[in-house]
Amino acid sequence: MTLTEVQDEIIHEFEQFTDWMDKYDYIIDISKDLEPIDVKHKVPENVIQGCQSRVWLVSEVSNGKIVFTADSDSTITKGIIALLIRVLSGRNPDEIMNADLYFIDKIGLRQNLSPTRSNGLLSMVKQMKMYGLAYHTKLSQK
Asked: Could you confirm whether 51 is annotated as catalytic?
């Protein structure tokens, strides 16, 4: 699926809920689908700075695509990173760097998070895009 198709699918899923408490419950459900990362990756170098909760983000390149894995000590935060992984993982570095993550505003996520969680969301997006930039630079030097 393309970036647009995945984001539109997420928007459609969230349109089924009219109440934000139901949307939070759905985000918590999504968190349960995110495979936990190996404990060896739960190191300070993999913690996303700027998040209220601890979020560990790990990336690797496979066939020119960046694959993300993550975990968090908060279920809502874990659900949020799971949504971002669903959209960005398995993409090439340029797609990640240039991604317009419009689904965040379309589902009302940014507007319905506390200021600290909203900052955390921005930090997650920034870190994933930084991985895209780093891998883009690395791959273009080969």
From this structure: yes
Per-residue pLDDT of the chain (142 residues; tens, 9 = 90+): 999 999 999 999 999 999 999 999 999 999 999 988 999 999 999 999 987 899 999 999 999 999 999 999 999 999 999 999 999 999 999 999 999 999 999 999 989 988 888 999 999 999 999 999 999 988 777 6
Please say whether the beta carbons of 31 and 82 come within 8 A: yes
Identify the CATH number of the domain defined by range 3-140.
Answer: 3.90.1010.10
- In contact, 59 and 67? CB cutoff 8 Å: yes
Question: Catalytic one among 10, 27, 51, 113?
Answer: 51
Identify the residue whose tokens are 């984001």: 7
